[in-house]
């Protein structure tokens, strides 16, 4: 009798643990990071590439909108940075205020 009760409690605790794990993962996945966390996350992903001029690009976030400001050496890098930023979990929109050498910086709308 005790052995059956113990097995039943064990099975129930395993199922409960699995359900809580799934719920926790779903809550974590659906949660929106705060702006500072989001900006740091974008920086860590965008600046992984050693060719990116880290000192010339500014990243900040406001309510899930990430603003990229600064000068990049060429159009392909500009496009890549915007694409990578848009792919980061939590980014709702990217405001691209980057510009190429010799161009005026775009103004925020």
Question: What's the helix and strand layout?
Answer:
Layout lengths: L1 H29 L4 H12 L10 E6 L2 E7 L3 H12 L6 E7 L10
Parallel strand pairs: 2-3
Antiparallel strand pairs: 1-2
Total beta strand runs: 3
Overall geometry comes to: rod-shaped
CATH architecture of the largest domain: 2-Layer Sandwich
Question: In DSSP terms, counting alpha (H) and pi (I) runs of 4 or more, how many helices?
Answer: 3
Low-confidence stretches: none
Please state the structural category. alpha+beta
Order of helices and strands: HHEEHE
End-to-end Cα distance, whole Å, is 73 Å
Spatial strand order of the main sheet: 1-2-3
The CATH class of the largest domain is: Alpha Beta
Q: Give the biggest sheet.
A: 3 strands, mixed
Please tell me the overall pLDDT.
Answer: 87
CATH topology of the largest domain: Histidine-containing Protein, Chain: A
What is the count of structural domains?
A: 2
Strand-residue proportion: 15-25%
As a whole number of angstroms, the C-alpha radius of gyration is 22 Å
Helix content: 40-55%
What can be said about this structure in brief?
By secondary structure, the protein is of the alpha+beta class. The protein is 49% helix and 18% strand. The protein has a three-stranded mixed β-sheet with strand order 1-2-3.
């Amino acid at each position: 009798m005790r052995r059956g009760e113990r097995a039943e409690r064990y099975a129930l605790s395993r199922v409960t643990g699995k359900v809580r794990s799934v719920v926790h993962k779903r809550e974590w996945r659906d949660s929106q990071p705060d702006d500072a966390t989001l900006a740091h996350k974008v920086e860590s992903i965008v600046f992984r590439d050693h060719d990116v001029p880290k000192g010339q690009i500014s990243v900040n976030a406001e309510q899930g909108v990430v603003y990229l400001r600064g000068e990049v050496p060429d159009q392909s890098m500009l496009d890549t940075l915007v694409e990578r930023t848009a792919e980061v979990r939590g980014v709702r929109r990217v405001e691209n205020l980057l510009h190429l050498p010799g161009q005026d910086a775009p103004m925020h709308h």
